[in-house]
Design goal:
Its EC number is 6.3.5.4. By secondary structure, this protein is α+β, with helices and mostly antiparallel strands. It contains 26 helices and 19 strands.
């Protein structure tokens, strides 16, 4: 796990040094540079390394023996041993002992950009193809590893974090109003947009080529997360459960390969417990280090369940507690470093958990992706009722229901009835394509409109989600909602949270549920085995995963309701300091209206937790001290 930065065009070593210094937390173990001024445009590549695989031989930038290909790369390729064997059989000769970086170099030479479809892992890379005069970029399927870039009049600037791109003197820091509107609607900024107009992010599942002579940039998609509805696996639920368990087992085993200590995040829920249970097949559980975060608010605390799971498997378990004082102390620095703002408050416990784990390990396996692949959220339970409500309840009656819900007493408990009811009704005011973003977003369409002083519509705010909903092969609400979660909520929110929260403290996190082979199999399973109807009692979420893991997990874990990795946000916001309103003018939002929402929330008149946290995260990120640009050298 590492970070890289670079540019093609004007600039020099000092510019590169500033860029790589900004991402030093991504790779504190080693650094390196590649500078080539022989082509149509000068190319500068810089690298920061967190050494995980082939510590002695994995130095970057790495070049082929002939020097015609040079790469900087962030991530892990879990099927690198298989690819290496295939390349050796094709006549390629390797210099390193087991570096996955060298596999990418030879893989590109053998297969070109078709290599991307063969990779099973998390990655972002820039490869300088000196012979063909171009820079080649790739990003993993879900976008677990970041890649930002900016086209300038004289070249291209790129890096693992947007702040490094913005530090280059040729890149202006003008904000993108459209992107900020989307941020308040979704809680994240959908690719390729970023908060800054000049900076873009390469979407997950895409490659990019920059021609150094013509200065033309082209982006192509090599994979997109979709449900495959006409090609179900052979057999039935019993066989599917067995195959699912073995695929997940193989994914866990692959992700335990490391030359440094590996640990496990453990919440006591089915996803993280499944990872630990399968890992215990491959190593002594007493040697496995598991970590969890607790809360002093009981409705949010899962530490007891995690401790029970750790005792069941016999792991070396440790726990720490996150309270308001700890959160307040962490918040300015953590949110101030978010180069791609997200309105997910669970970044606080995730970062504390990562810092805690980093004291003992360098790599941690997580359960990320399980809820998204297998319909694990409350919102999936709501789909059947939502479809009926949508057809049966007239608009005047819906508005009356919203007014009644607004008057209900407010609770600070985790996923309280009043909170879920108000959020459900907010989504049900829209058509089905907009249910998920309206349920999950921090602010309603009306609130975003008031905040920005514009007449906005759901069609305009949620057009990305709408396009995905309409273009899917499946007509099933569950399938289309799973696609939304995988493409947007997971790829644009949770994985950004996991990357930043862990890499700020130089910890690599790995997600077995996002294994290429596992995802391909699960995408072919029918919706009914993920969210299985259960008569008048509703539905069983993650049914096929629970069936697959039943031989290995205690019944208490299999039957426990999902709690979610939340924090007591509504209560904490009544005590956390309000960000300075000067930032509102820079962003172009109504500061007076926003201040009134703070007053309503602090007094208990209303619950604006989503809106106010989104504002806090964004304002803190944009209020960070500006990085002074270094003078450009060797200007063309």
């Amino acid at each position: 796990m590492c970070g890289f930065a670079g540019f093609a065009g004007p600039g020099g070593e000092r510019d590169l040094a500033v860029m790589t210094s900004i991402i030093r937390h991504r790779g504190p173990d080693d650094d390196g540079v590649h500078i080539d001024t022989s082509g149509a445009l000068p190319v500068h590549l810089g690298f920061r390394r967190l050494a995980i695989i082939d510590i002695e031989g994995g130095h970057q930038p790495m070049a082929t023996a002939e020097g015609d290909l040079v790469i900087v790369y962030n991530g892990e390729i879990y099927n690198a041993p298989e690819l290496r064997r295939a390349l050796e059989q094709a006549g390629h000769r390797f210099v390193t002992d087991h570096s996955d970086t060298e596999v990418l170099l030879h893989g590109y030479r053998e297969w070109g950009l078709d290599m991307l479809e063969r990779l099973n892992g998390m990655f972002a890379f820039c490869l300088h193809d000196r012979r063909r005069g171009r820079l080649v970029f790739g990003r993993d399927r879900f976008g677990k590893k970041p890649l930002f870039y900016a086209e300038t009049p004289d070249g291209l600037v790129f890096a693992s974090e947007a702040t490094a791109v913005l530090s280059h003197p040729s890149v202006p820091d003008t904000l993108d109003r459209t992107a900020l509107v989307k941020y308040f609607a979704y809680g994240f900024i959908p690719a390729p947009l970023t908060a800054h107009a000049a900076v873009r992010k390469l979407p997950g599942g895409c490659s990019m080529v920059y021609d150094l002579t013509s200065r033309r940039l082209s982006v192509s998609r090599y994979w997109e997360y979709r449900m495959v509805v006409d090609d179900q696996p052979p057999g039935g639920p019993d066989q599917w459960a067995e195959e699912l368990r073995e695929l997940l087992d193989r994914a866990v085993e692959r992700r335990m390969l490391s030359d440094v200590p590996v640990g496990f995040f453990l919440s006591g829920g089915i996803d993280s417990a499944a990872i630990v249970a399968l890992a215990a097949r491959h190593r002594d559980p007493a040697s496995m280090k598991t970590f969890t975060i607790g809360f002093d608010e009981p409705s949010f605390d899962e530490s007891g369940y995690a401790a029970d799971a750790a005792r069941h498997y016999g792991t070396d378990h440790a726990c720490r507690t996150l309270n308001l004082d700890t959160a307040a102390g962490m918040l300015p620095e953590l949110l101030g470093r978010l180069d791609d703002p997200i309105a997910d408050p669970s970044i606080l416990p995730t970062h504390l958990l990562s810092r805690f784990a980093r004291e003992r390990v360098t790599v941690a396996l997580t359960g990320d992706g399980g809820d998204e692949l297998f319909a694990g959220y409350d919102t999936f339970d709501a789909l059947r009722t939502a479809r009926f409500y949508h057809h049966a309840v007239p608009r005047p009656l819906h508005r009356l229901a919203e007014a009644v819900a607004h008057r209900l007493p407010r609770s600070d408990r985790n996923m309280s009835f009043d909170f879920k009811l108000r959020r459900a009704l907010r989504g049900l005011g829209h058509r089905p394509a907009h249910w998920m973003p309206a349920w999950l977003g921090p602010a309603s369409v009306e609130e975003v409109s008031r905040l920005f002083g514009a007449e906005l519509t759901a069609d305009g705010l949620y057009d990305e989600a709408d396009a995905l909903w309409r273009s899917g092969a499946s007509r099933h609400d569950v399938d289309r909602s799973i696609e939304f979660y995988g493409r947007f909520y997971l790829g644009e929110n949770l994985l950004i949270k996991a990357d930043r929260a862990s890499m700020f403290c130089s910890l690599e996190t790995r997600s077995p549920f996002l294994d290429r082979d596992l995802v391909a199999f699960v995408s072919r399973l029918p919706a009914g085995v993920k969210l299985q109807p259960n008569g008048i009692r509703g539905s069983t979420r993650k049914w096929i995963l629970k069936k697959a893991m039943a031989p290995l997990l205690p019944p208490a874990i299999l039957s426990r309701p999902k709690k979610g990795f939340g924090i007591p946000l509504s209560r904490w916001l009544r005590h956390l300091p309000q960000p300075p309103m000067e930032t509102a003018a820079r962003i172009g939002v109504d500061g007076a209206w926003l201040a009134a929402r703070w007053d309503e929330h602090r007094s208990g008149q209303a619950d604006h937790r989503g809106l106010l946290w989104a504002w806090t995260a964004l304002a803190t990120a944009l209020d960070r001290p500006a990085q002074p640009p270094a003078p450009m050298e060797n200007a063309a």
